[in-house]
């Protein structure tokens, strides 16, 4: 049971393959919620082309989202916390952590492409945590695949029951609008740009072909079942065009009406209820230099329970002593009072100077530890070489900052002076070089490292000492000082596991 204070919170993410229209949809949802007053038309040029959530220099150059951003807005008594996630597969680690902080997700699918690889990956992450999903089939005003085929693909590939909540009346040049099953009305395209400007036909007479399709859809797919949706077994499907405003209102109303309020969060064997009086939360993201003039560092905390008040003292698990939170940030909130208090489900930005790190638990009594925020073994390793060797100190600071954010992992070899960075995907390396230059004024290049992957090593002291004495050239410490085996190949990992049965070689490290 969720208390009245938190039952009006909806904390959700939008997941999709790149180019499915997620950024445009984010923008239109914010517009509906009154959080922004002008949508940055995607077909516009220059600065106007970027959604408000894409603020980093490389995002503006490349037109992709590379960090998760948080936007809070209110609509009809509901507080929405929208977490935007990078769609590009190279940022799956940041996205994974963001998905630990939400209670539901919207999965955006391109009507012409259906389920794409990254959509599937992100869906699997949601399934691991039983995150309920609402599906939005986007771009139905363009030529797309057969609607039944799309729905069956979602059902088959994701092993989900699908429950359409509407139906596109034609696609592309034949597009005549979107039928909403709940109201039995069709949202019609208007004007030269064929947008939805608010005109709805109630109880329309549909062309015979579409009348048959609608009848088949209503009979052939299960009715919406709230319990099955919230368990992650069924997805309601909405159709629309984010760019042309079709389906956006229905989507935001669905989040308000059916998406779950704050859910209990895992802390070891315990589940922490949102109704717990104590303020608790966890850091799922750290972002440096949101304001380059102030070298600021914001830790994003998902509040799990209690009523947070500005100035309150909370103890981070990584520090062990309380810190006062005097300047909490709530993102995009129009009402300043919102920043003075926050409830379970809210996302709070906490300015700090490196005190808070991803995976930290914050609480009043320091007795809770939230679990499930892992680091992943990197798939690409590179040496970092400075163009100006006098900037070693600045490079160390930059690498520490960026590894705290989860952009990269940094490893300090036990032999040799060149530091090694590890990433999950190639694009992260471009982001690293771009941000070193733009934010830290450090010019560096990346060279091939003689390693293919890394594993965290744990075990009895004697076995560890013996392993270290034989493998020093392949060992490094991560930024926490934990021992890491730098492997030349996956075969190398298997060989060492066989040779050292008392040691655990782990591909993930949980904070």
- The CATH class name of the largest domain reads Alpha Beta
Structural class: alpha+beta
In total, how many domains does the architecture comprise? 3
Strand order of the largest sheet: 26-23-25-24-28-29-27-30
The helix content, as a percent range, equals 25-40%
Coarse morphology: globular
At the fourth level of CATH, the homologous superfamily of the largest domain is P-loop containing nucleotide triphosphate hydrolases
Our Rg estimate from Cα atoms comes to 24 Å
CATH architecture of the largest domain: 3-Layer(aba) Sandwich
The end-to-end span amounts to: 29 Å
CATH domain fold name of the largest domain:
Rossmann fold
Counting copies of identical and different chains, the oligomeric state is single chain
Work out the number of β strands: 31
Instruction: Give the biggest beta sheet.
Output: 8 strands, antiparallel
Mean pLDDT across residues: 85
Low-confidence stretches: 37-52, 54-68, 332-337
Strand percent estimate: 25-35%
Family: Belongs to the TRAFAC class translation factor GTPase superfamily. Classic translation factor GTPase family. PrfC subfamily.
Subcellular location: Cytoplasm
GO molecular function, one term: GTP binding
Keywords: Cytoplasm, GTP-binding, Nucleotide-binding, Protein biosynthesis
């Amino acid at each position: 049971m969720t208390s009245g204070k938190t039952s009006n919170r909806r904390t959700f993410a939008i997941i999709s393959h790149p180019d499915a229209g997620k950024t445009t949809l984010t923008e239109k949802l914010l517009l509906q919620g009154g959080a922004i007053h002008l949508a940055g038309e995607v077909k516009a040029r220059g600065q106007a082309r970027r959604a408000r959530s894409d603020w980093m220099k490389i995002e503006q150059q490349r037109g992709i989202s590379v960090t998760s951003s948080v936007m809070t807005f209110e609509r009809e008594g509901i507080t929405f916390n929208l977490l935007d996630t990078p769609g590009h597969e190279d940022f799956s680690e940041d996205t994974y952590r963001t998905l630990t902080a939400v209670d539901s997700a919207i999965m955006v699918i391109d009507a012409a492409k259906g389920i794409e690889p990254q959509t599937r990956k992100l869906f699997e992450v949601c399934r691991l945590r039983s995150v309920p999903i609402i599906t939005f089939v986007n771009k139905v005003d363009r030529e797309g695949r057969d609607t039944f085929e799309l729905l069956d693909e979602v059902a088959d590939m994701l092993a989900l029951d699908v429950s359409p909540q509407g139906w596109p009346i034609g696609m592309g040049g034949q597009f005549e609008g979107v039928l909403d099953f709940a109201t039995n009305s069709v949202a019609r395209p208007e004007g030269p740009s064929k947008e939805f400007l608010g005109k709805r036909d109630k109880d329309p007479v549909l062309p015979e072909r579409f009348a048959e399709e609608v009848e088949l859809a209503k009979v052939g797919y299960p009715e919406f079942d709230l319990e099955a949706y919230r368990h992650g077994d069924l997805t309601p499907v909405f159709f629309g065009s984010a760019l042309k405003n079709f389906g956006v209102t229905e989507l935001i109303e669905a989040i308000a009406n059916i998406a779950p309020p704050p859910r209990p969060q895992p802390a070891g064997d315990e589940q922490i209820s949102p109704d717990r009086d104590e303020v608790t939360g966890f850091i799922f993201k750290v972002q440096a230099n949101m304001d380059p003039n102030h070298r600021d560092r914001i830790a994003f905390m998902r509040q799990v329970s209690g009523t947070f008040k500005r100035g309150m003292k909370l103890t981070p698990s990584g520090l062990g002593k309380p810190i006062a939170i005097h300047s909490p940030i709530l993102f995009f909130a129009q009402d300043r009072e919102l920043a003075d208090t926050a409830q379970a489900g809210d996302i709070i930005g906490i300015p700090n100077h490196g005190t808070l790190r991803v995976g930290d638990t914050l609480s009043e009594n320091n007795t809770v530890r939230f679990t499930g925020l892992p680091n992943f073994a990197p798939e690409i390793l590179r040496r970092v070489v400075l163009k100006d060797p006098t900037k070693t100190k600045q490079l160390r600071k930059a690498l520490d900052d960026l590894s705290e954010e989860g952009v990269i992992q940094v490893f300090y070899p036990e032999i040799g002076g060149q530091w090694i960075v590890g990433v999950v995907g190639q694009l992260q390396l471009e982001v690293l070089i771009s941000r070193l230059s733009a934010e830290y004024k450090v010019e560096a290049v990346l060279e091939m490292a003689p390693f293919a992957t890394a594993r965290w090593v744990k075990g009895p002291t004697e076995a560890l000492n013996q392993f270290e004495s034989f493998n020093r050239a392949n060992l490094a410490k991560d930024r926490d000082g934990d021992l890491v085996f730098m492997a030349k190949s996956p075969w190398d990992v298997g060989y060492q596991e066989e040779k050292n049965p008392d040691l655990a070689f782990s591909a993930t490290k949980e904070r």
